[in-house]
Amino acid sequence: MKNIQKPKFRPSVEPLKLQTVSANRFQQTMFIYYDLFNVTELHKIITFYESLKTQKEQFQKLQIVLINNQNEATSAEIAHEYFRNNPCYFDNGIFMRNLGKSVIDKFPYCYIFNNKEILLYEGYCLDKRIFNLVLE
């Protein structure tokens, strides 16, 4: 598995630009950061992305990587259990420890965590409100 470079941060992306961006951008990896992790919060995230994938064709092949900055190991274990017991779209994800340094595929599910932003691998830093606008 090739190394994934640390994405560049951008303040935001206009909703219109997000709507017109090519579908290929959404077939890459999206990183979601959460400062704290719990199963309830994870369930909300999964529900959100399942609806996203259902409503927008360009999100069909999106790969999600969830990252908990507080406690990576514990979060990975909890997420692993969650996805094992709750089948969902995101069953081919990877868990990344120390973003940009090493990729760990020990857990065959996608995980994680940070309410502040949603980041696309190509470098777009998106606010959840923008996604909400796109879905409306």
TrEMBL record:
<protein>
    <submittedName>
        <fullName>Hypothetical_protein</fullName>
    </submittedName>
</protein>
